[in-house]
Write a structure and sequence with these properties.
28% of the residues lie in helices and 23% in strands. The protein is built from five helices and seven strands. With 171 residues, the chain is an alpha+beta fold. The chain has a seven-stranded mixed β-sheet. The chain is globular. The protein has a single domain, classed as Aminopeptidase, CATH 3.40.630.30.
Length: 171
């Protein structure tokens, strides 16, 4: 079943693998996105360090940037194989580590394009689904694109907003 995505003209948004030279720009996008979250300012400032990507992340994850016509980075997504304990039993999944869109470009389909790239990567690599550990304010974005909540079995270990989409359901 195909879920509707907002239309983005392919000529205006270009996706490509991130490179070391992109880290400052993509981390600036992440910072601008995080600063819009509905959390106390102090919490955002203290946790921002954990959301930034570093050179070694380019080796451990697949990171993609979205660029506008001027080749400015306006979005970023990163993924890696998910741990077996985080996905539905007997399944293999790709974990969408992060998906961020510059607030100035929000609601224009950039996030949808990045999510589609992660789904395509999961399919191409033979994973059964895509896992997201979403911030509470972004759950609606993922649910609107067909992702469903996974149950919290162990409240001490399970992230509260884990969402899953079977890639076979999203062709």
């Amino acid at each position: 079943m195909r879920h509707p995505m907002a239309f983005v003209n392919p000529a205006t948004v270009h996706l490509r693998p991130a490179q070391k030279a992109d880290l400052a720009a993509l981390n600036a996008v992440i910072e601008r996105a995080v600063m819009t979250w509905r959390l106390p300012e102090r919490v955002k400032r203290l946790t921002l360090f954990a959301y930034r990507y570093r050179p070694h992340d380019l080796e451990d994850m697949h990171i993609v940037v979205a660029e506008d016509r001027a080749r400015a980075v306006i979005g970023v997504a990163a993924w890696a194989p998910a741990e077996a304990r985080d996905v539905p039993a007997g399944r293999r999944g790709l974990l969408l580590h992060g998906l961020y869109v510059d607030p100035a470009h929000a609601r224009r389909g950039v996030g949808g394009r990045l999510l589609e790239a992660a789904l395509a990567a999961a399919r191409e690599r033979g994973f059964g689904g895509l896992l997201v550990k979403a911030q509470s304010g972004t759950v609606g974005f993922f649910v609107a694109r067909g992702m469903g909540a996974l149950p919290v079995v162990d409240a001490a270990r399970d992230y509260p907003h884990r969402l899953w989409l079977d890639v076979v359901d999203h062709l």
